């Protein structure tokens, strides 16, 4: 399963630019995501059967992004991701608010 594509397909309908790892920052509001870790979840006979994937989704905006953040969380949950962490900051260099969301995804053995 291509999880990058799943995230793109999940978040694109929200109507803001979505990019993996990097965005050129031409929009006032946008989403950037990365996979920051991958770990074995289930092993058998010295073989990794299931990997757990960890993603960070950052929402950047010059204005109020509360509804967009709620929509991101809802859509990611519906796509099978579990939310693990949430934080908020203001990026002085970009003059944007930033919501940091971390999710995990654990496909079943038949998906990998």
Summarize the structure.
This protein is an alpha+beta fold.
Walk me through the structure.
By secondary structure, the protein is an alpha+beta fold. It has a domain at 1-50 and 71-86. It contains 2 helices and 5 strands, in the order αβββαββ. A 5-stranded mixed β-sheet has the order 1-2-3-5-4. The protein starts with a helix and ends in a 7-residue tail after the last strand. The model has no long low-confidence stretch (mean pLDDT 91).
SSE sequence, one letter per element? HEEEHEE
Q: Which blocks of ≥5 consecutive residues have pLDDT under 50? A: none
Secondary structural class = alpha+beta
**Strand proportion:** over 45%
Rg (CA only): 15 Å
Order of adjacent strands in the largest pleated sheet? 1-2-3-5-4
Arithmetic mean pLDDT:
91
Q: Helical percent range?
A: 10-25%
Q: How are the SSEs placed, and which strands pair?
A:
Blueprint: H1 3-11, E1 18-20, E2 29-44, E3 47-61, H2 66-78, E4 82-91, E5 96-105
Parallel strand pairs: 1-2
Antiparallel strand pairs: 2-3, 3-5, 4-5
Protein name: DUF3168 domain-containing protein
Organism: Bacillus norwichensis
């Amino acid at each position: 399963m291509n999880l990058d594509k799943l995230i793109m397909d999940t978040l694109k309908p929200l109507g803001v630019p979505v990019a993996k790892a990097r965005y050129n920052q031409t929009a006032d509001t946008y989403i950037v995501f990365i996979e920051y870790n991958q770990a074995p979840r289930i092993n058998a006979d010295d073989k990794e059967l299931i990997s757990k994937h960890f993603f960070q989704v950052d929402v950047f905006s010059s204005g109020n992004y509360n509804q967009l953040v709620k929509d991101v969380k809802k859509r990611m949950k519906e796509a099978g991701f579990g939310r693990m962490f949430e934080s908020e900051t203001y990026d002085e260099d970009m003059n944007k608010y930033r919501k940091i969301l971390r999710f995990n995804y654990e496909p079943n053995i038949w998906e990998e």
